[in-house]
Amino acid sequence: MAVSAQNDLSTRPPRIGLIDTLRGVALIAMASYHFSWDLEFMGYLAPGTAETGLLKLYARAIASTFLFLVGVSLVLASTPAPRWNAYWKRLALVAGSAMLISVATFFFTPGEWIFFGILHCIAAATLVGLVFLRLPLALTILITLAFLGVWSADTFTDWHLWRSDVFDPRYLAWTGLAEAPVRSNDFVPLFPWLLPFLIGLTLARIGLKRRLAEKLAAVGTGTSLLARLGRHSLIFYLLHQPILIAIAWSMTFVLPPPKADPIQSYLNSCNVSCRAQEGEALCRSFCQCTLDKLQGQNLFTPFQSGAIKQDDERILSLAGECSAASRQ
Fold this sequence. Notes:
Elements: H1 2-9, H2 17-41, H3 53-77, H4 84-108, H5 118-134, H6 137-156, H7 170-173, H8 190-209, H9 212-217, H10 225-230, H11 233-254, H12 262-275, H13 280-296, H14 300-305, H15 313-326
Helix pairs in contact: 2-3, 2-11, 3-5, 3-8, 4-5, 5-8, 6-8, 12-13, 13-15
């Protein structure tokens, strides 16, 4: 019996086609969400559409799915022991791609460049995961449950006791502990996004003990188009957005987007930025106040055109007045 158990532990888990298929589904979902962002950028959708309502929940579900699958895959690839050459090669590819995304967005969207997006988070989680692979399963489960409790308290209360403006700068905001992080087109900090990764890692470790890998591998689906796509997720990630932007840009020549109402555009954009830090009711009051003051001082048109910047003393002054008034 002891020899049999040792052989079981030394066996590499089979490749699970279902995991590849789920990753392929997540890639298609990601592309569909990013296309809504591209349509917004080109003027087909109102500013802030991709970051509010159901689309916001859709984006979070997609990111959670990717990180969950990363946790599962790390366990499968590291059983019975980590294959270090493959591990470091994969990590280098993900981290290098993350740096490429940062550099590209810094030049194309300097005001909201991606300093810690989904690829950055995956790379960091992959490193953190090495610790949890070595911990006793019971301790990993307890830490995951504790992390879930902290996330729940952060989501459903306004306490935020673990957040501080000390973490607001970019070089610390990646922790997820910032009170007012710098704006970014794709911000996926370790807190709370390490949670779906830990859930995936924990369930995979439990599943291996229950011999679920063999049962899931028997389901098949490993030869489907989605599964093949899922096995090349990094290439798809790097290529899909330039293609989608090109499509959205080409559409403007065939079916030009409608002209946006500048007032509504301002309110939508202001609310999206404000809600990253404050509640919806306060933001609605603050944005309407700043709009009224901009119009009253004849600053709205030059501000919208970019002739007056956000760091202009007049803009900072009226924003401060409206912030104080909204909190009364």
